[in-house]
């Protein structure tokens, strides 16, 4: 028929199916790798592109599986579970820290003085050689803090290792009432110390048992003063005692006499 032309690109005699594209080949190879090695397809692509090795991917999958088991089966805190799965923290220690975090309001590394700096309410601090002082923590640093005593014109700086205990100002009388003096320890003439080698700290597992058993315990300070109450929680630097009337007092581990760690917390 005049003027008729065959469409361009039409089927040509003898031509077979089109060859697979490079993209199709990579996809097929990735799918095969994913099936044979049991890895997600996204990681199979990463392996083929040289962004990771099969060994790296399998190790990461094992870490993730262990991470999920530590959280859901063992009840370990998510942040700590990540450290255990990466091999940076023993599982037993992570379980202990998780139990401590459950009990503790502030983070474990936050001491009672630092926590008080964020609270506008007045507190009372027991100082070696200085008795109880009432005021407000104005600024807390790693080793010392500024404390504005009620009625004073300017804050004073104290070293944290010179503080034995802390409580809300409204609960000061209850804190005094739970205190007693061990004359034998007092006769040793010990005060606060910055020497870490001279300090003692009860073991975490031991204190957890005391908390779980709801034990009434006695913390004896280096100068012989002792505070009695039920241990409710503890962190890295201090423990919280609940007094008979429901009041609370925090005692600092750096102020403890060795009696409190080597002979046990007496009932």
Task: List key phrases describing it.
10 helices, ten-stranded antiparallel sheet, disordered C terminus, 10 strands, 267 residues, alpha+beta
Q: Could you explain how this protein is built, in words?
A:
35% of the residues lie in helices and 22% in strands. 27% of the residues are buried. Strands 1, 2, 3, 4, 5, 6, 7, 8, 9 and 10 form a ten-stranded antiparallel beta sheet that branches. By secondary structure, it is α+β, with helices and mostly antiparallel strands. A hairpin with a 4-residue loop joins strand 7 and strand 8. It contains ten helices and ten strands. The chain folds into two domains: 22-103, no CATH class; 112-262, no CATH class. The chain has helices at 22-37, 41-48, 54-72, 78-85, 91-103, 112-117, 172-177, 183-186, 204-212, 259-262; strands at 123-127, 131-140, 144-149, 156-159, 163-168, 179-181, 216-220, 225-234, 238-242, 248-252.
Low-confidence stretches: 263-267
- Count the helices. How many? 10
- Tell me the major beta sheet: 10 strands, antiparallel
| Beta-strand fraction estimate | 15-25%
Number of strands: 10
Q: Helical amount among residues, as a percent range? A: 25-40%
Mean pLDDT: 85
Q: Which shape, going by the Cα principal axes?
A: elongated
| CA-based gyration radius | 32 Å
Count of domains: 2
Terminal residue distance: 114 Å
Class based on secondary structure composition and strand pairing: alpha+beta
**What are the secondary-structure elements, in order, as H or E?**
HHHHHHEEEEEHEHHEEEEH
């Amino acid at each position: 028929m005049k003027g008729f032309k065959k469409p361009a690109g039409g089927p040509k005699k003898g031509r077979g199916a089109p060859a697979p594209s490079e993209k199709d080949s990579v996809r097929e190879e990735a799918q095969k790798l994913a099936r044979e090695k049991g890895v997600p397809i996204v990681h199979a692509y990463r392996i083929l592109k040289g962004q990771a090795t099969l060994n790296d991917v399998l190790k990461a999958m094992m870490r993730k599986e262990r991470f999920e088991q530590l959280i859901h089966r063992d009840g370990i805190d998510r942040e700590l579970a990540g450290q255990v799965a990466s091999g940076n923290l023993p599982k037993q220690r992570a379980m202990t820290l998780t139990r401590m975090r459950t009990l503790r309001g502030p983070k474990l590394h936050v001491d009672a003085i630092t926590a008080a700096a964020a609270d506008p309410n007045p507190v009372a601090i027991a100082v070696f050689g200085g008795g109880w002082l009432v005021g407000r923590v104005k600024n807390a640093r790693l080793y010392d803090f500024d404390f504005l005593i009620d009625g004073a014109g300017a804050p004073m700086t104290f070293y944290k290792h010179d503080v034995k205990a802390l409580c809300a100002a409204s609960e000061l009388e209850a804190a005094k009432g739970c205190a007693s003096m061990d004359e034998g320890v007092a006769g040793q003439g010990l005060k606060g110390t910055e020497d870490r080698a001279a300090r003692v700290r009860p073991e975490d597992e031991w204190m957890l048992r005391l908390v779980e058993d709801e034990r009434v315990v006695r913390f004896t300070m280096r100068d012989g003063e002792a505070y009695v109450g039920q241990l409710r929680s503890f962190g890295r630097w201090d423990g919280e005692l609940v007094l008979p009337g429901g009041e609370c007092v925090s005692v600092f581990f750096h102020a403890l006499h060795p009696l409190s760690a080597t002979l046990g917390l007496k009932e």
